[in-house]
Amino acid sequence: MTSALRPYYESREAQNIAFVLAEVRSDLSRQDYVLDTATDWCVENFAYELDALRAGKPLQYILGEAYFYGMRLSVSPSALIPRPETEELVHLLLTGLDSTKPYRILDIGTGSGCIAIALAKHLPQAEVWACDISAAALALAVKNAGSIGVFVRFFEADVRQSDCFLDMPMFDVVVSNPPYIPIGESSSLSSRVKNYEPAEALYVSNEKPLLFYELIAVHARSLLKENGLLAFECHADYAEACASVLSKSWIVRLYQDFQEKNRMLLAQKHQNFENENR
Q1: What is the pLDDT of residue 27?
Q2: 84, 91 in Cβ contact below 8 A?
Q3: Phi and psi dihedrals of 268, rounded to 5?
Q4: Which CATH topology does 78-276 take?
Q5: What is the C-alpha separation between 144 and 163, in angstroms, rounded?
Q6: Strand, coil or helix: what is 232?
Q7: Low-confidence ranges of the chain (pLDDT < 50)
Q8: For the chain, what are the domain ranges?
Q9: Which helix (H) or strand (E) element contains residue 70?
Q10: Which of 42, 47, 187, 205 is most open to solvent, judged by the fewest CB atoms within 10 Å of its CB?
Q11: How many CA atoms lie within 13 A of 202 on its CB side?
Q12: Rounded to whole angstroms, how far apart are CA atoms 159 and 129?
């Protein structure tokens, strides 16, 4: 299997893909793949998977599943594949929140539901809401919440509309992993990302790379209780700019990911912050 994939993937990535297929789709051991003793069997029985992998289709979409924060979630091209950086955002939140408290949490741009579902699972007293602009993504998120056995209040919303959160309750936490890749950077992305993952969940205009952060922050000012928390996953190249913009009306702190890049931002709402800093 690994030898069949090496022309299309780096050696270690080819081996990792073979390992996952071994665990999910066959009874073969990892050792079989390491030794590449099962190549003929794999080529015959994994013809569809090999063709799709050679075409650049992400393994998670081929399998229809991905792991996120210890959970196995269904995935499809209607939503982004959950990523380790987003797991770090969830972990950062869970580290700072008390699992015994009845928080009300809103996840904006939920996609597969990975953030909302992980928070609902690990904060059993919390009331978790989640929204997305895509009906297809919401259907996927509902399916995932059901498979994990948690309840999340999913609804459709477009943060570009000023009235999208009318008649909503107040929240303790608003979290989002919004679109943040300037469209001009699309050529630098892997074909597995730009050819298969949903563009509307990836890209923003080159002229307004912080558009969704600014829009969500405006909504969050109305949605959050006093001292409520706004949490973002950020583009590493724009995280400091995002922090600078938000610091005009929020108490902001940046956090680094496992690659020591600024990728997470926590902002606390404080009604008197602007007056105190004039």
Answers
A1: 65
A2: no
A3: -105, 135
A4: Rossmann fold (3.40.50)
A5: 28
A6: strand
A7: 274-278
A8: 2-55, 78-276
A9: none
A10: 187
A11: 21
A12: 15
